[in-house]
């Protein structure tokens, strides 16, 4: 993937905003009004400069396909374990396009920002006059005087879900590829009331905040840690054949994070419930990525699960080609030196490296890299 952008602009973060209170969307922070309760909502100029510097190195990328043998051939260079540039590049791969924010209209429901919609995609939505409206705020003095909301007749979550769902079906694969018939909740922030539910594939086209669960499954042998890594099926519509976590999945409407993780553990790796319930919630990472008409604003809840040495994962849903067990240090080198991993998986593993002491404060750029995982 090409690196086409830098990180989000500095912002002013509030717990609730109306459209007329926005000073200028071009300079407004791209995340929802409240990101995640305790995470920093801005990156200072020093951090931006550090990220650009550390990500300036040339890192080899994956070809169209690669094998497990290619992964095994990635070896550390002498004395480069403290070189964080490869990690910074992976953060940038997930955080492109901040300079394009002015091309998006805020998407409001009941006075709350729930997403951002590209002008070009919004033009397509204008024909659905019984679903979407584009008010002009007379008190707003900036260049961007319109925003997107739903028709006032759509007053309940059920009505909104049905109406917007019909629009998504009408647009079809031509406009929204990869429709999965899986609903994501649309909220102003995590845990807030659900305004309606939206097809998963449509989430980045409406710029809503999406959530997922990612689990690092590891074992310990003779005082050393090893990570189970999956290789995605070549038939997957997204990131086919790339490396992945042992278990990961989006968080659909109506299921708690822990319950969703247990379900994904069974489907993706054959991990029985009595084992998966021992997974530990260890935090979250986040990123934003603008690409064409899509605006991905994702938060990934991270889990660790220490597995028995005798355990061997087995995929049950056909989405994983196979699993391999690697030393954590080998996985770190693969992330730093290749683009074999699905991009957002790199962020979760980098977070694992911090928490398990593989990245230490003595490394140049330590705080900047840590901060960049939680924009």
TrEMBL record:
Domain of life: Eukaryota
Keyword match Hydrolase: yes
InterPro entries cross-referenced by the UniProt entry: DUF4743, NUDIX_hydrolase-like_dom_sf, NUDIX_hydrolase_dom
Domain Nudix hydrolase: 210-351
Pfam families for the chain: DUF4743, NUDIX
Record GO terms (molecular function): 8-oxo-dGDP phosphatase activity
UniProt xrefs under PANTHER family: THIAMIN PYROPHOSPHOKINASE, THIAMIN PYROPHOSPHOKINASE 1
Function per UniProt: Probably mediates the hydrolysis of some nucleoside diphosphate derivatives.
Protein name (database record): Nudix hydrolase 20, chloroplastic
Natural source organism: Quillaja saponaria
